[in-house]
Write a structure and sequence with these properties.
binds magnesium ion; binds adenosine-5'-diphosphate; seven-stranded parallel beta sheet
């Protein structure tokens, strides 16, 4: 790369994947600070975000030995003293930092043992003309890139680069690794390299969006945005640069997804299910034990419209736990059967598959339909018989685990695939099912993990979405309470009361890794304790280390009310239906994600009785845990909870996102915060796809070129078609 020596070039490539000028320019700062704002140490307190200081190191000392060694420098600007502390890279610091020399430094002040300190400050030689200023001026941006000013700085009226903005001077801060810092590429060096790159540029950066899109969405030019994202000339322009680049990033992701969905539509004709026949009608009139909810009816209509459209359906059905998705799935399967096809329902675990079969057989009663179960444990003669009946078309509905994907499973005419609890099946596995029929079957993906809209648009952006947003009538909302583990007697009181009414109880322990000894000990100890405290009741124990058959039989004992209390790890998380259970106790609730807590809670409240969820934590919990627990206590709405979880934890940690491996290495946009921009970006991308279906409009050439480039550079993007 021009302007960078071989050593640095290697570091940039190894550590940050920066290979080209373009890569460097799209490695954006993670925060900014106004260079003209320098604090006086006497004005600093431990609650402030990052601050800039100017002064000298009075003395340095090395404290501790070996791995525990640290360096402490006493830094002063004349108004006070603050300690600078380093725990790593000590040799480098000792070599490069000198006493009695003026430095400009930057970091987050903290109070430690009653003394002000900054750990691992960014440090550089002070320019001649800087002076600390009194506190009134305030700081600028926090590390999340949002404005965080303490004073009202009038923003310049649409300043341009030439006008020099509003007179602020922003310094960009870049993330760099320890290795890079040792190789002398710290944040300041990144800024210098980037600035040099701009100097080498002879002309403005080429626009990456067509002019009509730039105009329509009131965006600034690509050149202006990139320059200002690195070296903002005003607060206003920085905001506009961020808006432009976030829009662009999300726009191209959406364009990629929607283009894929469109090409799939063109590639795969859909089976046309034109009739509603005897099976659907017979079931609806004679077998349906209750009235469908409004939401169930609406969703069935949406699915039905897809299935007769001539296009292959690819639809995501979201519905909170207990909203009645199984019934919707069954009724859609009946439409497929009425049109001479078979249906296949895939569940993530054997026990869920078994439950589906049982539920469906119960619903169907004496209807002349054959429903079979195929899992890994169905073997030998039985298996051969099922496979034969499948090929000959005698089996109408096949329910199974991923065993149904195997090549040996051949349908006579597969018309509809329903995937329950989708996030355990990847896109590739879904695609494999399509190959099971000459014409790709319709695909319905069901999930009970509500996904915030912004995430759904990115993760499942190629699917149409239906939502069941209504629970069947007569359900009492589950009462959720927070209890401390020290108050176990209160928990036992509630348990005794419910048990005496003939109800059953779940107690769940977290299990982060199946191998973690601690977790097993918790579970074992809990099991012993419960046995001792409830001698007249039978207790089941289920955990991930048990053999599947053992696990299933113990679950069955609980399901058939042979046992009264089930102590388990999260193996019961998904889908298990024991309507008589009325209490869900979650131990160490702080170790679960909100969506997971919500899933677990959904195991109770399935009958008409009042149900309870008890979140148990220790007495001392962090502020964040307290907030999370409170959300669970206050809300039973899965979508609301998922949104809150997204805000608290960020998209990378949410269940279901890791597996997808898609679009989470966003450079600048943030799915938790940029929902509005995402909505615009998706609409803009949809407009392009609709308005230029054969990609022949020369105005859009720049789009397809850029998209090809992005797909080449981004492995995850390439993988979705
Ligand atoms: P989930 O969406 O979590 O898969 P289920 O399909 O297991 O929910 O349904 C939960 C319970 O609600 C089941 O016992 C089911 O029979 C019942 N159910 C479904 N639809 C209705 C309805 N419209 N009215 C009353 N009960 C219903
Ligand atoms: Mg279900």
């Amino acid at each position: 790369m021009q302007g960078v020596g071989p050593h640095r070039a290697e570091l940039l490539e190894k550590e940050l994947g920066i290979k080209t000028l373009g890569d460097l320019l799209s490695y954006y700062p993670y925060k900014y600070v106004d260079r003209s704002r320098i604090y006086r140490i006497s004005d600093i307190d431990g609650n402030m975000p990052y601050v800039q200081l100017c002064g000298q190191i009075l003395s340095m000392e090395s404290i501790g030995e070996g791995r525990g060694r640290r360096l402490v420098a006493h830094f002063s600007d004349g108004s006070g003293i603050i300690d600078l502390v380093w725990f790593q890279g000590l040799k480098y610091v000792e070599k490069s930092v000198t006493c009695r020399k003026s430095y400009l430094l930057f970091g987050k002040p903290q109070v430690f043992n009653g003394r002000l300190q900054i750990a691992h400050p960014e440090i550089e030689d002070a320019p001649q003309d800087v002076r600390p200023m009194a506190r009134t001026t305030g700081y600028l941006f926090d590390d999340e890139g949002e404005m965080n000013r303490t004073t009202d700085q009038p923003s310049a009226p649409s300043a341009t680069r030439a006008e020099g903005g509003d007179g602020l001077s922003f310094r960009p801060f870049y993330n760099t690794s320890e290795r890079m810092k040792k190789g002398t590429i710290n944040s300041a060096m990144m800024a210098k390299l980037t600035a040099n790159m701009f100097k080498l540029l002879k002309e403005p950066l080429r626009e990456t969006l067509p002019p009509y899109i730039v105009q329509k969405h009131h965006l600034i030019s690509y050149d202006e945005a990139v320059r200002n994202i690195h070296f903002p000339t005003s607060a206003d322009l920085l905001r506009k640069a961020q808006a432009r680049l976030k829009f662009e990033e999300l726009f191209y992701i959406q364009l990629n997804i929607l283009r894929y969905a469109r090409s799939r539509q063109l590639k795969y004709r859909g089976l046309v299910f034109g009739t509603i026949g005897d099976m659907f009608n017979g079931f609806y009139h004679d077998h349906l034990p209750f009235e469908l909810t409004g939401a169930q009816k609406r969703v069935i209509r949406e699915i039905r419209a897809d299935m007769k459209s001539g296009r292959q359906m690819n639809r995501l059905l979201q519905g909170d736990v207990g909203s009645g998705k199984t019934l919707v799935a069954l009724m859609c399967a009946l439409i497929a059967i009425d049109n001479g096809c078979q249906a296949c329902i895939m569940a993530p675990t054997e026990i869920l598959a078994e439950q589906h079969v049982e539920t469906i057989r119960n619903f169907l009663g004496d209807m002349p339909l054959r429903v079979e179960l195929l899992t890994g444990t169905v073997k030998g003669k039985k298996r051969t018989e099922i496979l034969d009946s499948l090929v000959s078309g005698k089996v109408n509905i096949l329910v199974g685990t991923h065993a149904v994907i195997e090549d040996s499973v051949v349908f006579s005419r597969l018309g509809l695939v329903i995937i329950d609890e989708q996030h355990r099946f990847g896109v590739a596995q879904r695609a494999k099912l399509w190959m099971k029929n000459e014409v790709a079957p319709h695909v319905l993906v069901m999930t009970a993990t509500p996904i915030p809209r912004t995430l759904a648009m990115t993760l499942y952006g190629d699917l149409d979405v239906s939502v069941i947003d209504e629970l069947p009538p007569g359900r009492k909302p589950i009462k959720t309470v927070h209890m401390f583990d020290a108050h176990r007697q209160n928990i036992y009181k509630l348990m005794n009361h419910e048990l005496s009414l003939g109800r059953q109880i779940y107690i769940v322990y977290p299990l982060i890794k199946e191998t973690e000894k601690m977790d097993m000990k918790d579970l074992e100890a809990g099991y012993e304790e419960i046995n001792a405290a409830f001698p007249t009741y039978k207790v089941s124990k289920v955990h991930g280390k048990m053999k599947p058959a053992e696990k299933d039989s113990e679950m069955q004992r609980f399901a058939s009310h042979e046992t009264h209390i089930l102590v388990s790890t999260t193996v019961i998380e998904v889908g298990v239906n024991v309507p008589n259970a009325s209490v869900m106790i979650i131990e160490n609730a702080e170790r679960f994600g909100l969506s997971q807590l919500h899933q677990l809670r959904g195991r109770v409240g399935r009958g008409a009785d009042q149900s309870y969820c008890v979140l148990v934590t220790k007495y001392q919990i962090s502020e964040e845990t307290r907030k999370r627990v409170q959300i669970m206590v206050d809300s039973t709405d899965g979508f609301e909870i998922a949104e809150a979880d997204l805000k608290l934890r960020g998209p990378g940690d949410l269940e279901g996102t890791q597996q997808s491996g898609m679009a989470f290495d966003l450079r600048i946009a943030n799915l938790a915060r940029d929902g509005q921009i995402l909505t615009y970006a998706r609409a803009a991308a949809q407009e392009v796809i609709d308005g230029d279906p054969d990609e022949s409009n020369p105005q859009n050439d720049v789009l397809w070129q850029r998209l090809r480039q992005l797909r080449k550079d981004n492995i995850n993007w390439g993988a979705i078609s």
